[in-house]
Hints:
Blueprint: H1 9-17, H2 22-31, E1 33-35, E2 38-40, H3 43-62, E3 66-71, E4 74-80, H4 83-90
Antiparallel strand pairs: 1-2, 3-4
Amino acid sequence: MVGNYRITQHADIRMQQRGLCNGQIELVMKHGEPTDDGYVMTKRAVEESIAELKYEIKMLERLRNVNVIDIQGSIVTAYRVNGRRVHRMIHR
């Protein structure tokens, strides 16, 4: 299975012959350009996906030690905590 897709025996054989694994197929389907019969990983799609992932990495670095409190599905507050407090929160 790749995502919600079943891989046919033919596709499995061809993927093996071409050195493609399920994870790579998932990436093409996630980041590639949709076509009439599937997806294609164009140069533009690769560049856009890399830019998006770099931005996400930058945001993740900025969010280190941010704590978000949710109670019964509602976010009630968010704040930064120090590393020691993070350790205590995780290892209760």
